[in-house]
Amino acid sequence: MAFARTTWVAAALLCTAAPALHAEDGIAADQFDRLRELIRPQAGESRWRDVNWLTSLHEARVQAAANGKPILLWSGGGAPPLGGC
Amino acid sequence: MWTEEMVKVVNEQFTAVAVSGHVAMNRKDSEGDFLRKTGIKLAGAGGNIECLTASGTRLGSFYPAGGTEHNRRDLQGILKKWQALPEPERTPGGVKVEEAGPVAANVKEIAPPPGALILRTYHRLLTRTAEGGVRKVVVSDYPQLTKHGDKDIWITHFGERWEAQPDFMWIKESEWNAIVRPDPKPGDHYPLLEAVADRMTRAHLIMGMAYGECGICDKKSVRSRTLSLTLTDVSAERVELRLEGAAALGVDYDTSIKEDRKGAREGKSVQGFEPKVLGYLSYDRKKNAFTRFDVVALGDAYGTPGGDHHFNYRPGRYPIGISLELVEGKAPTERIPPRAAVIYDTPNPHYLATGK
What we know:
The complex is a heterodimer. Chain A has helices at residues 32-39, 57-67; strands at 17-18, 71-76. Chain A is of the alpha+beta class. Chain B has two domains: 4-108, no CATH class; 110-347, no CATH class. Chain B contains eleven helices and 14 strands. In chain B, strands 4, 5, 6, 7, 8, 9, 10, 11 and 12 form a nine-stranded antiparallel sheet that branches. Chain B has a two-stranded antiparallel ribbon with strand order 2-3. The interface between A and B is large, with 68 and 115 residues. Strand 1 (17-18) of chain A pairs antiparallel with strand 5 of chain B.
């Protein structure tokens, strides 16, 4: 199976603009990293990513009961809201 | 809703779970039975945030679009109800949860295929700068929104729209195994496997996902597509590949200008999107595995976004960026189905049948 680099690169420097990235042209190799980091979530965005989500309600019940906590249940459309919904 | 403060409270004081509302409400198994008995109604599009106990007592809901103060009040009310429950409900180990039982068939079927390669994708709306580059959008890029006057309301209600929209792409084991051809040599150049190229284009290089809306577009909506691989380095251990190409989806720009409703509430959305693609893939020959699958796409979109997104209309062309990257796929949060792979609570058979 495949494995990935999942590092959340600090992208705060990219919050404003990525100069010289032209949508109408092909993507130049030297623009690749900069464009990629502009597109991906950046510091302060989508903070829901920092929540320790489960995706099974049953598993959540088991953990909530064991730890004496209430359950926060977030629902979305065709897929859980952690993906497209 | 998802302020730093709220994330901290949720992580410390709750057990958090994210589900598909359609799947959760309709699943024919003990998990579905439990949820239905609580009386909670989970929506599909739009979603909900509900709080409950492990035994099924409903504690209340959040109004995500209500803003920070509203959410603080929601939270206080929920925790007050929690504290008022009898102690055995709140004590660790006080509630006994029954065995899960067999999982409903439709839930099993929307899991990744065995051995699938999983890519995490992000779509982001962008704006071209005066210097010719691109940047993140701001509300003033949207004339339909600014004319409503109170920008903050729109930002609060739809704030996440300006952020990267997440999704996943699945590539079956038989497909990724065929991406690198036998006897690879540096300089080899050939088209990306049809099933993968077709799925990537019709389900993932789509403008709707930048608005959080998606699906799989029909083949006739693809005006052109060229996605090809070049082997840039080959050794006994590794094969390095560059993915390049472009696609044109929907109508051409002139047709869009002529026929689109241009942000009006009524009328047809006549759109197009013309992304260019560049990617770098690494294949480990010893492990028989891709270790890198980084792809970006950048291109111009035009026309009125579909459905209720007409108020996000922007005249002319505007850029959308898309990124794809490999994930391990072991965590449940990385095994969420691609949005285009699911129709309400069942698999979309067209998703994994691309290329045929």
